[in-house]
Amino acid sequence: MKKNIYINGLSNISPQETFYQPMGATIAPPQGAFFTCQEPNYKEFIQKKLLRRMSRIVRMGLATAHKALDDANNPSLDAIISGTAWGCVKDTEKFLETIIENKEAYLTPTAFVQSTHNTVAGQIALLHHNNCYNMSYVQGNVSFESALIDAMLLFYDNKANNILVNGIDEQTEKLGILLERLECAKAGVRVMGEGAACFILSDQPTPNTYAKVAGVNMLYRPKDKTAVQQSIQHTLQEANIPLEAIDVVLTGNKTLAIEKELFPTADYSQYKTLCGEYPTSTAFAMAVGAQVLKGDLPTKTALGIHKKAPKHILIYNNHQDINHSIILLSKVSA
What is the spatial distance between Cα 18 and Cα 29, in angstroms, rounded to a whole number? Predict the structure, then answer.
């Protein structure tokens, strides 16, 4: 049975200043073809003896989890679900380099264990002494949406009251070289990024609730534009929200033909101009969208949104016309 799902806590590490405070008037530009995250002081959240052995992506995952839990008043978690496409890239590089250097002999299992995609979710569970349901989704550009849908199904089946969901991907120097060689990254044309956003979802609202997750949908290789429009309309119908009620569209696309045809009166914001292109960028969009619905004026200004009091935000991302994703957020009535 469907039920309301609330965002009661969140944390966001991104190329903008989003961790300690909301985005302000000053927007950090990319460096060439890449955005790089503004990272916090990890010593505030992780013990020094543990910090030394952690890779950068694990640090980002743990810091955002700690802050999101604190933001939600530290509820007891029933599940930890992570979405990542690239995984622990730096640790994977180290593992592969070790294989070459040692000629495939005398290898320790540590480098391999730390390079797997479920490392972040596992480390969050270990640090918080949590042995609940723990899952990582590696579904390319819909990794975060897959994690989000899994969480929603747990709520619908009454198997959870509080769930941690994150979307996280990192850039490295070697990955950057590959992306440029493949012409995936090009300054001024296609800027790649990275980020880590964490959410505490619950079936009950609190005084700190940011927004309600009203719907999530994914579409793989649609046959035409009409199929995409029908999928968006179906997502809204299931949430009992008319098309004209959408105030803001956060889009990951450069061309807005579909969005403007469906929502001619909405405000539009191309969120990737702030975080860059990476597989789980929709987690960044969901974080800033939730802050806008809670009434965060600096974030609203940074996104270029002019609507006075948005009530419904649609997040739409199209990756090379292969994976389409839709996330619907709604304001929680006082």
Answer: 14
